[in-house]
Amino acid sequence: MAESISAGSAGPDKPVVDIRDLKISFNRIPILSGINLQVRHGENLVVLGKSGSGKSVLIKCLVGLVEPDAGEIRVFDKDISNLSYEQLNEVRLKVGFLFQNAALYDSMTVGDNLAFPLRYHFKKLKPAQIRQLVGEALDSVGLQEAIDKMPSELSGGMSKRVGLARTLILKPDIMLYDEPTTGLDTATSKEISALILEMQRKKNISSIIITHDMHCAKTTADRLVVLKEGVIAAEGSYDQLRDGDDPWTKTFFE
Questions:
Q1: CATH of the domain spanning 7-253, picked from 3.10.20.30, 3.20.20.70, 3.40.50.300, 3.90.1150.10
Q2: What is the mean pLDDT of residues 21-44?
Q3: Are 218 and 238 in contact (CB under 8 A)?
Q4: Choice between 63 and 152, residue whose per-residue pLDDT is larger
Q5: Which pLDDT tens digit goes with each residue over 114-155?
Q6: How confident is the model over 206-226, as a mean pLDDT?
Q7: Domain ranges of the chain
Q8: pTM
């Protein structure tokens, strides 16, 4: 029987994510060249970097969507490269992933989009239980009134919020956000950033946030890291990096 995976298995003093000497190349071109990174329980970590710096590749490695060439990735103190298929799926249930485009099913209503992962992963749930969980998830992002809408009827910001609700419905312990405010107007971007912060405060979720949006970074980050040429070039709080001496890092804050 597969060993159960849970956030608690990492222990209170261990990071929920621990990446050691991670290396990845595509077609012999180095993307990540020895990344060492930890995420603590309840922490929001923002990852900055120019296009092509490997930011999205980094978080895809955490759920086994990209296989590294070398290094170790521990999630809840488990080396994911040594997990069985069933154990890896257990990890994926605990790690929510919000894609750039929200990835909603166009042919399903908002309610059915949220119900789908529940029906897939928890086949013993009764219809009334599913309806309750869907309602609670939509309420958490302020969109209960959208339950019967189709994705084509939603604005960009509403789609992002529905995508977040669909991810949160499985009650993840870690959230991975891939450019959560890309393509949104300023006001809606601020709403999404505030919602990420609210999820951290209410649910104590650990998050890795990939973003180019410096308002999002400032609002959500407990700590930031900056990727440059496959390595971590800088690390610290928003103010520390903004006020630091490195000219290249400071370009993100101009």
A1: 3.40.50.300
A2: 94
A3: yes
A4: 152
A5: 999 999 989 999 999 999 999 999 998 999 999 999 999 999
A6: 95
A7: 7-253
A8: 0.88
C-beta separation of 41 from 174 below 8 A: no
